[in-house]
Design brief:
19 strands; HIT family, subunit A
């Protein structure tokens, strides 16, 4: 296997970034742990790949203003492959996976993206969308039969070369590397033409719809401000620019706090929707992960790991969840929307899930099955049963 030497770009906490390309031109970025045993030489991707799929098209639902990206190429993505054909593991002679070399953390452009590879204007080797949105202002208008090119970028974040696991199974050093990668990619993706919001997230468990057991997450870069964030912007406008500070102060004085550090507080929110729902907020206002300090990232790694391991300690088997990092839009609301994690799970008992039926799915009218205060008590006890996380 041929190799190439990839230049190193130093990041925070001793993490090193190395950027290259896959055989079809997609970007691949290695994020090396501090003190990694990996060298600067990485294998070249020598696969013969089909051309990248055309960028999807979005259609507007005129009744809600929501944009629906119709990405039919995603129908062919991998579904629960065996470990020997893991597409996120390092390549071997019998497994022509997406990542040519052994790695610590790796990020690459999704082969079957919901948004992109086209951008609002041609940039590098990314073409311009045929009918790219003319900024988010264009997308908030309403009309029948409106469509636009689904410009943007979707990336896969591989937390580890291991075949199975999740963020919670990482060590502190590796978790810190992933956080550095999230911050770096948030900054880079926010700078791309036509990107209005960047969303890192992790889906965990088949009950959530996960199709790969490999420990990984994703980053979506949208050409619009998402519906949930628009509602938050409306709330900030109505209640005040210090809304998130007031929420944090109120929650810190409540019995719903489950974990707290010098820079972060985790709590079950006052109006929790899901059977398991925890929010994690930084103590100062930061719009996104790229704006966090080294001290905030250093504390986040062990604190977040302990939170996830506490959630798993609620039951005898791993709990499915969605870990959603809400970040402020790229251009608007950055003084009002604060970075925060929303961790949710439909698990309402060891062998029961909450399904979104008529009221939630059709009307958006939620009915909670347990009080946030009682659930916070259970989660605190579960976290207390987990050993302290150390480097």
């Amino acid at each position: 296997m041929n190799t190439q030497r990839i230049d190193a770009v130093p990041l925070g906490a001793g993490v090193v970034k190395r950027s290259t390309r896959l055989a079809d031109g997609r970007e691949l970025i290695y994020f090396d742990d501090p003190g990694t045993a990996l060298g600067p030489d990485r294998a070249i991707d020598e696969r013969t790949l089909d051309p990248r799929p055309a960028t999807a098209t979005m259609r507007q639902d005129v009744l809600t203003g929501d944009w629906i990206s119709i990405a039919s190429a995603r129908q062919n993505r991998a579904f629960l492959p065996p470990a020997n054909l893991d597409p996120l593991a390092p390549q071997t002679p019998t497994n022509p996976s997406e990542i040519p070399s052994l790695y610590d953390v790796a990020v690459f452009e999704n082969k079957s993206p919901s948004f992109g590879p086209a951008l609002a204007r041609a940039t590098g080797d990314a073409p311009a969308g045929d009918d790219a949105p003319a900024g988010d202002d264009d997308l908030v208008e309403l009309g029948l039969g409106r469509s636009r090119t689904s410009v943007g970028r979707c990336e896969v974040v591989c937390f580890s070369p291991a075949h199975e696991g999740s963020f919670g199974s990482l060590g502190v050093v590796r978790a810190r590397t992933v956080i550095e990668a999230w911050a770096d990619r948030t900054a880079a993706l926010s700078a791309l033409p036509g990107i209005e919001q960047v969303f890192p997230f992790e889906n965990r468990g088949e009950q959530i719809g996960v199709t790969l057991a490999h420990p990984h997450g994703q980053i979506y870069s949208y050409p619009y401000v998402t519906p949930r964030t628009r509602r938050q912007l409306d709330a900030v406008e109505k209640v005040g620019g210090d809304l998130f500070a007031r929420i944090l102060e109120s929650e810190q004085e409540s019995e719903r706090v489950v974990l707290q550090g010098e820079h972060w507080t985790a709590f079950v929110p006052f109006a929790a929707r899901w059977p398991i729902e925890v929010h994690l907020l930084p103590h100062r206002h930061v719009p996104d992960l790229a704006a966090t300090s080294d001290a905030e990232r250093d504390e986040l790694a062990p604190l977040y790991l302990r939170l996830l391991r506490g959630i798993d300690a609620l039951y005898d088997t791993p709990t499915p969840y969605i870990a959603a990092w809400h970040q402020a839009p790229v251009r608007v609301g950055r003084d009002g929307i604060r970075l925060h994690l929303q961790l949710t799970s439909p698990r309402r008992a060891a062998d029961k899930l909450k399904f979104l039926a008529g009221s939630e799915s059709a009307m958006g009218a939620w009915i909670a099955d347990v009080t946030p205060e009682s659930q916070a008590e259970r989660i605190r006890a579960a976290i207390a049963s987990v050993p302290e996380v150390s480097a």
